[in-house]
Amino acid sequence: MSEVAEAPVPMPAKRRVAQLVMLALAVVIVMGAYANVGLAIDDQIPAGMLTYGLGLGGLMLIAYIVLAKFAPWADPLILPLVTVINGLGLVMIYRLESAKMPGASAANQIMWTAVGVVMFAATLLVIRDHRMLQRLTYTAGAIGLVLLAIPAVLPSSLSEVQGAKIWIRIGGFSIQPGEFAKLALVVFFAGYLVAKRDVLALAGRRLLLIDLPRARDLGPVLVTWALSLLVLVFEKDLGTSLLLFGTFIAMLYIATQRTSWVLIGVLLFAGGAFLAGMVFDHVGDRFQIWLNPSSDEFYNREIGGSFQIMQSLFGLGAGGILGTGLGQGNPDLIPLSFSDFIFAAVGEELGLTGLMALLMLYALLVERGLRTSLAAREPFSKLLAGGLSFILAWQVFIIVGGVTNLIPLTGLVTPFMSQGGSALLANWILIALLVRMSDSARKPPPQAIQNEGLTQVFQR
Amino acid sequence: MNKTLKRAAVACLVMFALLMINVNILQAVRAEELSGDSRNTRNYYARYAIERGRIVAGGKVIAQSVETESKKFRFAREYPDAKLYAHVTGFFSPESESAIERSENDLLDGSSADLLLRRSIDLFTGEPTKGANVEVTINPKAQKAAYDALRNSGKRGAVVALDPKTGAILAMVSLPTYDPTELSGTEKGKVFTRYDVLAKDKSQPLLNRTIGQTYPPGSTFKVVTMAAYLEDDSSRGPDTTIEAPQQLPLPNTNISLPNYGGAACGSGQVTLKFALERSCNTPFGKMGLELGYDKMKEQTEKFGMGEQIAVPMSVAQSDFGEKEDQAAVAMASIGQRSNRMTPLQMAMIAAGIGNNGTVMKPYLVNKITDAKGDSVDEAKPEELSQAVSPETAGKLSEMMVSVVNNGTANLAQVPGVQVAGKTGTAESGDRAAPHAWFISFAPAEDPKVALAVIVESGAANVGAEATGGHTAAPIAKAVLEAVLNK
After folding, report:
1. CB of B60 within 8 A of CB of B135?
2. Global ipTM
3. pLDDT per residue as tens digits for the range A437-448
4. A394 CB near a chain B CB, below 8 Å?
């Protein structure tokens, strides 16, 4: 009878209207920022504002309708948060393009945003039950590895841009397969760890209050570690290497509840970083530069010096607390300010205030993802949602920490903001997966048959 | 898994907290250090981002910012009559500025705290901040007259004119000059190359000789010696007589002080007025010996020497010289030895005598108005010192008028105006021809202008009478006429 005495579980509300209002607000904020850039630069509202605004609004409306129809119980905050972040990135790229910054192209980015939203909708439509992904664990793993390996295998002429061998370039078209590999690998990690977590959680010896795993269970960690090192060696991509390894360790910890895995991971990472620092000059230099970016020796170095990071810090300093205002600073002085360094560009024009708000948006997004993970009902969903949320937070930490010199700089895109189609598509798919899981987690469970004598009530 | 998930959530929270703390440190704590870093090129672009205020002289714009087509450099600095006002306006180069551009920089670029109210209003009305306008005290007519006259002499030199009653600087010319436009471009390479050429030029075109260079004042300094001598005993006057030998033996040495060109001075016993008219050396050497170092030094200090003066550009220190022996005092009393004066200091001496003995603090900035024309600050004339009593000033004035009317400076005479003046010929030590000096004020009874002229190596080496009168006095005359509208 104890079940009867329990208070009824509060029904999560759908909050669809709230989501629509917030989505509209997100679009309004972005349009306002867009108008602001035009007013600051040319003293007039940009001619394309209505087109862009309506375009963005229309896109989000489509996303909303698909979401409302096919994932009605999903968290109402996720889509508006992503819309604001994506939109601010667009505005920043538009602003840099107006400053005639070579490489910045707002039209390209809005096109990719549109494709991203289509991918979001398609993912929601195709993956009606995310648990099907669990059956694809090893397929996902294989896909992930192949995607990750392609640029390393391709000749440099087809895969290398500015020293990072992470592209596939065919004609004028280029994608970064690593961005999609990231998703596939998180799916693989989740499926694999759910299956093996009991074994991996088994304790071996106990040393200094820590239960060490059995030596033979070290296999998966060592394989992932080796994989990360290979990425580092053959693709010179410190960022992705760190991103994947860190995410794996976090998911391993979540799955097995063993702190020892985290320690082993940190030790392996430290060892790997040390090795890499010894073998590759550019890795060791990154560390030195991180410690002392303002020294003239590094600043004046032609290649691989601290010029970039210092420009980023100068931009942030120039922004100060309130920023220069959109269109009124000089973010075009920061190299790559439309991609890797877009966070510094925002910092210059929107100031500390804008950056705190932006970080808060990311933190909220991650928090909604982790909440989904907590609310999920079976281990695979928990681990997948947890892993996807963590990789988002971890990626923001690595790149934002890098451009603000909190940690050594490694190249990664700022999720949803940096210019680049691959990352945008992959991240929109990531959001679709979170939304899918959020829907299933918040959906009220089918009501049990109630004990009301002989009457059976069916809940539809 | 919820336990570990919650821990992972805390880890994410910590990561975001670290990012936020770091951004706060960068943008709040270290913002000034980072944005002020000399390698931060934003400062370079920022120099051209706002409309810098104008510099105006007597209703005439002498420096202004004009909008350009370029997006990177929105405003360019322009100097109409660039060379004429070069040492007043200064230049505005990519990394530095000089003269008024430098000393009034925070007003011109609008960053001064005095403009806080204006900036706040602009913030609300959405108008772009503009710098304040600086009105200088220069009288364009006098400036032009001084520039042309000095240029016609073909020599290096300086002219500075003051309003004796206020201390306002009416003309400030230093030759050779330079073109500030060349140093105010946005192309660093071009500007810096040009600057290096000018800086290395032996004729020192970047030097403002009126305030940045000291010269031996020569005979013009005799008015100071005379002032000290009259102050020392109020019964003395223009007609008091003094010994004027052909040679004045200097104590404790075997050399003696001759008159200019070794000439005699009257009958050997002359009036003070005559001594000044003829600019004899021996009577003034004698006065110096009689007064001694301390009294002479005291008199120079009363005329403002030894005081740190900024107009607002800082003025080089004039100096009577260290205390040595009596022979040195005698030499310094006729403006030689280690006696060194800036042309501005000499003009202040003339102005002080003209203004009943009161020396006014010289200043160059008359008025600051914000972009809307509202006054931000206005110069208030200040007394610097009481150099001599009004009686002494009157006696000196009378004698100086006589110098122009009957003595060495007849070339400075202006029809219908009583001009007071004193010529000077200063040996500069090296073998070059001596410098020609002239200090003056007019009209003597109610002076409107006081000035000092120096023409470097401008005195012909012909052994004639004090030849400062020959080259420097006509330049002074041109300036006097310009100010007095004659």
Report:
1. no
2. 0.91
3. 999 988 887 766
4. yes
